[in-house]
Write a structure and sequence with these properties.
- With about 140 residues, the protein is mainly beta.
- The chain has strands at about 20, 30-35, 45-50, 55-60, 65-70, 75-80, 85, 90-95, 100-105, 110-120, 130.
- It is built from no helices and 11 strands.
Length: about 140
């Protein structure tokens, strides 16, 4: 007899099953790992690739975001105008709201690959608020 489950069970997602998402920003590509079609997803996330010598625009979300550098080197940007070096193995946490505005600069000739996750009921993508100027973060 096959057991019946009232809730989703562990899901294994192979790299070939990552869902390509239209990029929100120039010079990026995104493969989603967790999203609304994964049973029980309470998170949203994937792998963002930032092209060589490119910048990911400053933006923020209404929820916190964890970013983990899978490959490459660059700079993490924050709302205060700070630039901090990041490299393979670095973790960045951007808190919710305007004070958590963040961006990245790829300083290398190879893609900067960033694993990212947000809390997201139902696996729905959080809203992205692009920072047009420093006043957008005040």
């Amino acid at each position: 007899m096959t057991p019946q489950h009232d809730s989703p069970i562990t899901t294994v997602i192979a790299p070939a099953d990552h869902l390509a998402r239209a990029p929100y920003f120039d010079h990026t590509a995104v493969g989603l790992i967790l999203h609304h079609s994964i049973p029980g997803a309470g998170m949203y996330g994937g792998i963002l690739s930032l092209e060589a010598h490119s910048q990911l625009a400053m933006h923020w979300h209404e929820v916190g975001e964890v970013q983990y550098i899978l490959q490459g080197q660059g700079m993490a940007l924050d709302v205060a105008g700070n630039q901090r070096p990041v490299a393979t193995g670095t973790t960045v946490y951007s808190p919710p709201g305007r004070n958590g505005a963040h961006g990245f600069v790829n300083t290398e000739a190879e893609p900067l690959r960033i694993l990212f996750f947000y809390p997201a009921p139902g696996g729905m993508a959080p809203t992205v608020h692009v920072v047009e100027s420093r006043d957008d973060t005040a």
